[in-house]
Design goal:
mainly alpha; globular; 391 residues
């Protein structure tokens, strides 16, 4: 019998996988313009290819939810980290549109495997801690984005080929994932349920499907609001408020930094005020942040608004994720989380396109108000989180 891993060691391990996931997405993302130029493809083509990332992630998540419920999340998390590192090689060496599209789909699927696995494992680690740690795990994802952007930025400034940068980054991820595997907490069921127990569990979980989907839509709405800062804040500051290119970049920077550092203290807020309060009042603050940004008369106030959004939205999605893992019985937590993650990824991928679509009829700052309205919906729906165990 293998020795049980300490909560502290398992927390470090799962945190590292969150860092790997955030780094992978960012290091690939900063190379998108280079890929576009190298393959001579248009914005619309690269936009369609990027959607394949979300599609691959969504399909992988739904499949892995069932696997986690039956066999645990430990191996799935490690597998996700390994395949994510390997998958970076495909777009790195893609020399035409079909190979790039296939590579991005595989990368999305790999990140989807990692995402659902590490979140499910993180739920188990938090239960062992008997206090909130989930927000700090997602902080590592945010810091991974900063690390990935820094790696990509330095590599591009040194004119390193994309194939070299992504190969080296992927190799480090594969190695780290293998080394960290044994430190993950074991959550494999001691015995698979009998056929009649499976039937009873499926029937009981179907009654909670509407609850799972509502939590998923709340996470989707929060993701759209989050994406409005990542994808549109720079353009908003530049075209609406007349900021320079350098000043416009401060919107994304202020939002990302505010969200990352707020997640570091998010667990203390959950322990002090509860998950319901963090989601409700965080959503209200996020809504106020977007309103401040879109109504801002100056660039400085606009940047402040995007930073306020980062502070408010920081704890919303992590707490909705862990709520999904606590809906109903543990026997279905993987599948329930997968549904919520899938809807969240839909918001991440479709949100920027929805806002862009709206700009065909209304000004950008008005279109960005969609995020303001959606976060108000999340705040109104947060009552479902008044109990830690949702039944």
């Amino acid at each position: 019998m293998s020795k049980e891993v300490s909560p502290k060691r398992s927390r470090f391990a799962v945190s590292a996988y969150f860092l790997i996931g955030g780094t992978a997405i960012a290091v690939w993302g900063v190379h998108i313009p280079e890929v576009e130029h190298r393959l001579h493809i248009t914005h619309s083509v690269i936009g369609s290819i990027i959607l394949l990332f979300g599609f691959g992630a969504f399909l992988a998540m739904q499949a892995m939810g069932w696997v986690i419920d039956h066999y645990g999340s430990k191996a799935i998390t490690a597998l996700g980290g390994i395949t994510t590192g390997l998958a970076l090689l495909i777009p790195a060496f893609a020399n035409d549109v079909p190979s790039l599209a296939g590579g991005v789909f595989v990368l999305g699927a790999s990140v989807g495997i990692l995402d659902v696995g590490m979140n499910a494992n993180g739920v188990v680690v938090e239960r062992k801690y008997q206090r909130s740690i989930f927000s700090s795990l997602h902080a590592m994802w945010s810091f991974g984005g900063i690390v990935g952007a820094a790696i990509g930025g330095v590599a591009l400034s040194l004119a390193l080929p994309m194939s070299v940068t992504l190969s080296l980054t992927g190799a480090v991820m594969v190695t780290a994932s293998i080394l960290l595997w044994s430190s993950l907490v074991e959550d494999k069921p001691t015995a698979l349920p009998a056929k009649h127990e499976k039937s009873a569990g499926n029937k009981a979980n179907r009654k909670l499907l509407s609850t799972v989907l509502w939590v998923g839509f709340m996470a989707c709405f929060a993701a759209i609001a989050e994406g409005s800062a990542v994808d549109w804040s720079a353009l908003h500051l530049k075209t609406i408020l007349g900021a320079s290119s350098g000043e416009a970049a401060l919107g994304v920077g202020a939002f990302s930094a505010a969200m990352a550092f707020t997640r570091l203290v998010g667990d203390k807020l959950v322990d002090r005020f509860g998950r319901f309060a963090v989601v409700r009042y965080g959503s209200l603050l996020a809504s106020a942040g977007i309103a401040t940004a879109v109504l801002a008369p100056t660039t400085a106030i606009g940047v402040l608004g995007w930073a306020i959004l980062g502070i408010g939205i920081a704890g919303v999605i992590p707490q909705l994720f862990i709520a999904a893992g606590n809906i109903g019985e543990e026997s279905h937590s993987g599948r329930n989380m997968a549904k919520v993650f899938g809807l969240t990824y839909f918001g991440i991928m479709a949100g920027p396109a929805i806002i862009g679509f709206l700009t065909n009829w209304i000004p950008l700052n008005t279109a960005l108000s969609l995020g303001c309205l959606l976060t108000l919906v999340v705040a109104a729906g947060a009552s479902i989180l008044r109990s830690d165990k949702i039944r």
